[in-house]
Amino acid sequence: MRALVTGASSGIGEEFAVRLAEEGWDLVLVARRGDLLEALAERLMGSYGVEVGVLVCDLSEVGAARRVTEFAPEVDLLISNAGFGYPGDFGSVDVVDDVGLVQLNCVTPMELAHFYMPRMRLAGSGKILFVSSSLGFQGVPYMAQYSATKGYLVNLGESLYWEGKADGVGVSVLCPGATDTPGKDHFDIDYSKLPIKWMGVGEVVSTALKYVGRKPIIIPGFRNHFLSCIGGGLYTRRHVQRFMKVLYGRLGR
User: Cβ(13)–Cβ(83) under 8 Å?
Assistant: First the structure.
């Protein structure tokens, strides 16, 4: 069994790599930070005796998916975890960065699924997990690009769940809420101003691995599930968006 994990150098992606290695999966790990990937690969091979391939690749670049699929043309499980976002007024960053965000969060995951899913269908087995976000269920002021791109993954993965089901291919979308990863420290944000309850990566990944291929949408934690259901409701969307505007407006953009 061979699993491909993107964004594997830290956070949720690293946790997926560790859990899968514990279960005896050989791995292909992809991320930008080669030093962290190499260290993780050495640790997993030494601890669990699995094979681990490492590909240093910026998935926000055009053509990145081709590099990945040429490096690993056959996998049994794809975990498309790499993603990014930044708070602020729309248009406040260079449009090149916004285009790169769409490439990273939408285009590359789609291209990877476009390559692997037909092969899984022919084999009659395989699983794909897209890592989205609870913010993907509605537009979020001051996180417009991030919520929009994560919404794309929700709709793509949900659609492919039903397409792949008849052919033995399980597709799911993981939509975690606020998760305690190193990524949350990339910005100068005072999180004490926001009513955030952080979830550990262990709980997020455990839930994902339990339900991947069995549910189209996986939302770890009852609180996150409840809030996501409210946020995605047709008649509650504008109220949620007003609330999110106030919250993110406190960040001093």
Answer: no
Which DSSP category does 194 fall into?
S
The pLDDT assigned to 253 comes to: 46
| Residues designated catalytic | 146
State how far the Cα of 109 lies from the Cα of 122, in Å rounded to an integer: 20
Q: Rounded to the nearest 5 degrees, what angle is found at the Cα of 28, between the Cα atoms of 26 and 34?
A: 130
The H or E element spanning position 98 is helix 95-102
Using 70 as the pLDDT threshold, list the residues of the chain that sit under it.
178-199, 221-253
Label residue 30 left, alpha or beta by phi (over 0 means left) and psi (-120 to 50 means alpha). Answer: beta
Would you say 187 and 252 are in contact if contact means Cβ atoms under 8 Å apart?
A: no
**Would you state the pLDDT for residue 42?**
97
Structural domains in the chain, sorted by start = 2-249 (3.40.50.720)
> Where are the alpha helices (H) located in 103-236, listed in sequence order?
108-123, 144-165, 201-211, 222-231
CB 5 within 8 A of CB 17: yes
Q: Rounded CA gap, 163 and 124, in Å? A: 13
Residue-level pLDDT at 186: 53
Q: Check the CA dihedral 203-219-50-180 and report its sign.
A: negative
- Cα separation of 104 and 185, whole Å? 20
